[in-house]
Write a structure and sequence with these properties.
DNA polymerase, domain 1; 80 residues; 70% helix; mainly alpha
Length: 80
């Protein structure tokens, strides 16, 4: 992963909730570098969401309609 891309994603992983920060950064460090392009794009899409929406996906209160996004959410939960 390019340094500029990593820095940008790392900044976008900083949320208003420490728990989200930890989950998102853990995924970025462990899974993102080896992820296929569709999964990387889905992660970027997830990061564009609001904290309550991301939290709803991660707690199971909401389900992602997009299969790639649902896969990223699953990977985040496994990584946590």
């Amino acid at each position: 992963m390019a340094d500029h891309e990593e820095a940008k994603l790392r900044w976008r992983c900083r949320r208003g909730m420490r728990e989200l920060d930890l989950l998102l950064l853990r995924y970025l460090e462990r899974d993102y570098p080896g992820a296929p392009a569709a999964e990387r794009q889905a992660f970027a899409t997830l990061l564009s969401g609001q904290d309550p929406d991301i939290l709803a996906l991660l707690t199971g209160r909401e389900r992602a309609d997009d299969a790639a996004l649902a896969h990223v959410v699953e990977r985040l939960l496994i990584a946590g």
